[in-house]
Amino acid sequence: MKNRFLLLIGLLILPSIALNAQAQDDHDHDKPATATSSAQSADQHDDHEDHDEHGDEEAHDDHAEHDESESEVVTLTSAEMAEFGIVLDTAGPGRIRNEIVVPGEVAVNGDRIAHIVPRFTGVVKEVRKRIGDRVRTGDVLAVVESNEGLTPYNVTALMDGTVIDKEINVGEVHQGDRPAFIIADLDTVWVNLSIYQMHLTEVQTGQSAAITADHGINYENGVISYVSPVVDEHTRTSTARVLLANPTGKWRPGLLIEGRIATDAYSAAVVVPKSAIFHMDDAEVVFVQAPEGFRAQPVTIGRTNHVNAEIVSGLEAGQTYAASGGFTIKAEMQKGSFGDGHAH
Fold first, then answer.
1. Exposure string (b/e) for 140-149, b if CB count within 10 Å is 16 or more?
2. Distance between alpha carbon 126 and the CA centroid of its chain, in Å?
3. Which residues, given as ranges, of the chain have pLDDT below 70?
4. N or C end of the chain: which has fewer CB within 10 A?
């Protein structure tokens, strides 16, 4: 009897346990679904934020690209170009000289120098000219009292020029064994270029030579008029001489210079002056004129000398460009405007 009662109780409890287990399973099954839904919602929210951020970035990039594109053009009026010294030219063929670079020194023109020696020994009574004075032919330089008869006589200039040395003083007895004055005509000077052995066969009279004394800022062009037939035993160089006009006196004897001798020349399809080439954004550029304004056109440079450069690519024959005065255009591009809005 007791066993039957226990069996009956077990049969009543088992369905309840099964129902609870099923309910727990259903509840546990619902939990992941809810989490998945939340994750999907979060992902959609993140995607929405990413889309917004991406859209903002694209808008910013588009704006930046627009600004960059706009800043690449500089518009200047004809009056402004004239004011800033901007000179236009048309790209086309030209010739570029091969050059060798040599050191040199300015010297007095040896054909225009006079050593003034008193004719008679005597006591110096007057000295009228000093080093640096300009004199003309016949000017009295000094007065000497001759020992023969104690007669004073004038020591005069034999040519127009500048006194560059003086070896005479009042009260001394001048023996006439040395020049009392040295006068040089400095309206022209010699430039003596040192030619090393490796270049001796390339240098000859008649060749052009560009001379500079200020590290290439300014050049003076001349022609080689003489090449020494001997090599100096100490320097192992020969001398090539250029005659330069010197009306302003800027070529002072003793001045060290650099010379560029043109040995030959070659033709190129597009040649521009080096003053037209600028370095911007890790590239060499030429400022090309277009209907909307000046643009910085990247170019590839070929052979060059101190004046011109060959353009291998980037600039076509017939294009108009700024041959000089490009510093203004470069500054305009870098700062955006002059303050009244020239760059666009």
1. ebbbbbeeee
2. 54
3. 1-71, 336-344
4. N
How many CA atoms lie within 13 Å of 240's alpha carbon, on the beta-carbon side?
A: 31
192 forms beta bridges with 105, 241
CA 74/CA 136 separation, integer angstroms: 57
- pTM for the full model? 0.64
Which has the closest alpha carbon to 124: 98, 154, 101?
154
Per residue in 46-89, pLDDT (tens digit) is 444 444 444 444 444 444 443 443 448 999 999 999 999 999 99
Residue 180, Cβ density class (10 Å: 0-12 exposed, 13-18 middle, ≥19 buried)? buried
Specify the pLDDT at position 195. Answer: 97
Other beta carbons less than 10 A from residue 31's beta carbon: 9
Q: Is 186 helix (H, G, I), strand (E, B) or coil?
A: coil
Predicted local distance difference test score (pLDDT) of residue 343: 56
